[in-house]
Amino acid sequence: MITIIAGTNRKDSNTKKVAEAYKTILSKKNIECKILGLDEVNVYERNELFLVMEKAFLLDAEKIIIVLPEYNGSFPGVLKLMIDNSDVKNVWPNKKILLTGISTGRAGNLRGLEHLTGVLLYLKANVHHNRLPISVVHTLLNGDGILSDETTIKTLNTQVDEFLLF
Question: In degrees to the nearest 10, what's the CA dihedral of 100, 12, 45, 61?
């Protein structure tokens, strides 16, 4: 099972829309996956609900895809908080992680991808080499908010195929 983390707590975010695109791609490949939207869970404290989420989405995941938007030149604090409140000795070591940065600007959250890669490597996770920055993400969505840019979808498919072999 692959968990896709939409790394923001903002409602109706482009991050969640890109996470949905990954879910569609994986589903077409008959790969079991589910989305952990940080807008749907409370990650502010390690309580019973957090432990249930952690087991279902993090501990039991074979691999994790993280879609991270650019926040102030890095990645969202809520994503870091979720990582910090997780059982770091059991969730992250040797876990295979795929990262995709998104932004409405031109760099696709390159700096945030670097920052999160550093955190994950510190936690002994295995970060896939093909970290994808998606720039001007809002222009790649159709009127229904679905990722519809053919070049980007093809790139995501290639990235996913590589990740499945990782």
Answer: -40
Cβ(130)–Cβ(97) below 8 Å: no
Task: Tally DSSP H helices, then E strands, for the chain.
Answer: 6, 6
Provide the CB-side half-sphere exposure for 134 (13 A, CA): 28
Residues forming beta bridges with residue 96, ordered by sequence position? 63, 126
- For the chain, the domain total comes to 1
How do the pLDDT tens digits run along the chain, 166 residues long? 999 999 999 999 999 999 999 999 999 999 999 999 999 999 999 999 999 999 999 999 999 999 999 999 999 999 999 999 999 999 999 999 999 999 999 899 999 999 999 999 999 999 999 999 999 999 999 999 999 999 999 999 999 999 999 9
For the full predicted model, state whether its pTM sits above 0.90. yes
Return d(Cα 58, Cα 87) in angstroms, integer. Answer: 9
| CATH code for the domain in which residue 41 is found | 3.40.50.360
